[in-house]
Design a protein that fits this description.
This protein is an all-alpha fold. It is built from 15 helices and no strands. Helix 7 runs antiparallel to helix 8.
Length: about 250
């Protein structure tokens, strides 16, 4: 069976651990809220009404792609495109191609940033491998104007951050929803996680204060993994109704 992502790829290591995946979406949650096309996420009402449920739904698609055969991964990509096409038809207009690219770029950036925060620095070769996987996802969805490689992508990513992000009423509402669904303590942990992951342009546009206490917490968390306490920590970080979904994020790599 031919795999979409080879077994020894760093991408499988990144997406096979629940803590890394949760940090990927912590960072993406901040950038999503600033995107000029975020109104599309409000059209269906799913994101503001259940941001955590939306997270796990998106994770399901990503895992299906990363850990499947080429055939099954392409089926998942086709399904993802069909879902968005249906939304476009219901609204009577199309999602801008740059908005699709922005989402893809988030997955690339936060895959790298989350792994480096929790594990270790990636080599340029490993970063290129991350890019190549999501480049294939993008081309499978029919996206245009994608840079050919990681090196070419870096300046394009910076340009997207400058051109396609803005602080809007949607930004304020989404952060209110995050706080509502997470509670005050978990919400503040989310903010600290985002500060450690997001690019400078995102920090500039969001009302982040300069207090940053996540680093020592990460150190304690890394220790908890060695003594098999990390599942308890993760369950404390998200509401109890999501316990099953959290446990399902860990994949035994072989």
């Amino acid at each position: 069976m031919s795999l979409f992502v080879e077994k020894d790829s760093v991408v499988r290591k990144i997406w096979g651990k629940s803590d890394t995946v949760l940090f990927i979406f912590a960072g993406a949650a901040a950038e999503f809220a600033l995107n000029k096309a975020v109104d599309w996420l409000y059209f269906t009402g799913k994101l503001p009404s259940d941001p955590l449920g939306r997270l796990f739904s998106t994770v399901g698609y990503a895992r299906k792609i990363v850990f499947s055969s080429k055939e099954d991964a392409h089926k998942a990509i086709d399904t993802l495109r069909q879902v968005h096409t249906a939304v476009e038809q219901n609204r009577g207009t199309t999602i801008p191609d740059w908005a699709y690219r922005d989402v893809l770029f988030m997955l690339i950036h936060y895959s790298i940033a989350a792994y480096e925060l929790l594990e270790k620095k990636l080599s340029e070769e490993e970063k290129a491998a991350v890019y190549n996987v999501f480049y294939r996802v993008g081309t499978g969805m029919g996206l245009k104007e994608l840079p050919q490689n990681y090196t070419e992508w870096l300046p394009v990513r910076e340009a997207h951050l400058i051109e396609n992000l803005q602080h809007s009423s949607y930004t304020n509402d989404l952060f209110k929803q995050y706080k509502k669904h997470l509670g005050v303590v978990r919400y503040n942990i989310l903010l600290e996680s985002q500060k450690a992951l997001v690019p400078q342009q995102v920090k500039t546009l969001l009302p982040f204060n300069r207090v940053h206490w996540l680093s020592p917490v990460i150190s304690v968390y890394k220790i908890s993994r060695y003594v098999k306490m990390d599942k308890i920590v993760k369950e404390l970080l998200l509401p109890p109704e999501y316990k099953a979904q959290i446990n399902e994020l860990d994949i035994v790599l072989s």
